[in-house]
Amino acid sequence: MPYSLPELPYPYDALEPHLDSQTLEIHHRKHHQTYVDKLNEALATAPEMSKEPIESLLMNLEAVPEAIRVAVRNVGGGHANHSFFWTIMAPKADPEPTGDLASALTGAFGSVAEFKITLTKAATTVFGSGWAWLVKNQAGDLSVMTTQNQGSPLSVGLTPLLAIDVWEHAYYLKYQNKRADYITAWWNVVNWSKVAEIYTK
Fold it and tell me: 50 Cβ partners below 8 Å, 6+ apart?
């Protein structure tokens, strides 16, 4: 198969107590795997497309055959979004960003604290399923945005720096319908070093 499920960079219980191991395992092994399987199924009719990184397909959806474009946007987005999401979390993560990233967040939002408030509000107010993102445009300017379902900022020319998954499957076993509690807990596992690395690329 052209696309495969990436391994997590930490054990399933590594983000406890903030993100529970059972949810993380189901989220990764079941939900993410399903996106990969359905993406491979869709691209079976256009095998030449599967040679490209999924990010490239999402950045150039108009080049994807119309018959599978919606599927690539949806399940390809699910694969890309989750592959990214796993990397921007870590156990024993630094509590705050530092250096150039902290300066950029302060310049864009007034302070790191105000950025956290902005992203938290965006994640809390996503209607239904989706994502909240910190993104960078081609000029290097930072902003917060949301996408519905498995939409990707890549499809509108933006570079993801940080993302929080607010689909219920990301938190329901531990937090039930308390999305706000999940978001508060999630801040404890943000891998700021990785976010800074992406920012400086």
Answer: 2, 3, 40, 43
Q: Are 85 and 167 in contact (CB under 8 A)?
A: no
Q: Could you tell me if 6 and 86 are in contact, meaning their C-beta atoms sit under 8 angstroms apart?
A: yes
pLDDT, tens digit, for every residue of 100-120?
999 999 999 999 999 999 999
| Token duo for residue 20 | 């529970």
CA distance 188 to 36: 28
Kindly report, residue by residue over 122-148, the tens digit of the pLDDT. 999 999 999 999 999 999 999 999 999
Backbone angles phi and psi of 193, in degrees to 5: -60, -40
| Domains present along the chain, CATH in parentheses | 21-87 (1.10.287.990), 99-200 (3.55.40.20)
**For residues 142 and 104, is the Cβ–Cβ distance under 8 A?**
yes
Q: Measure the CA–CA gap between 105 and 86, rounded to whole angstroms.
A: 22
- 152-179 as b/e, with b when 16 or more CB fall inside 10 Å? bbbbeebbbbbbbbbbeebbeebbeeeb
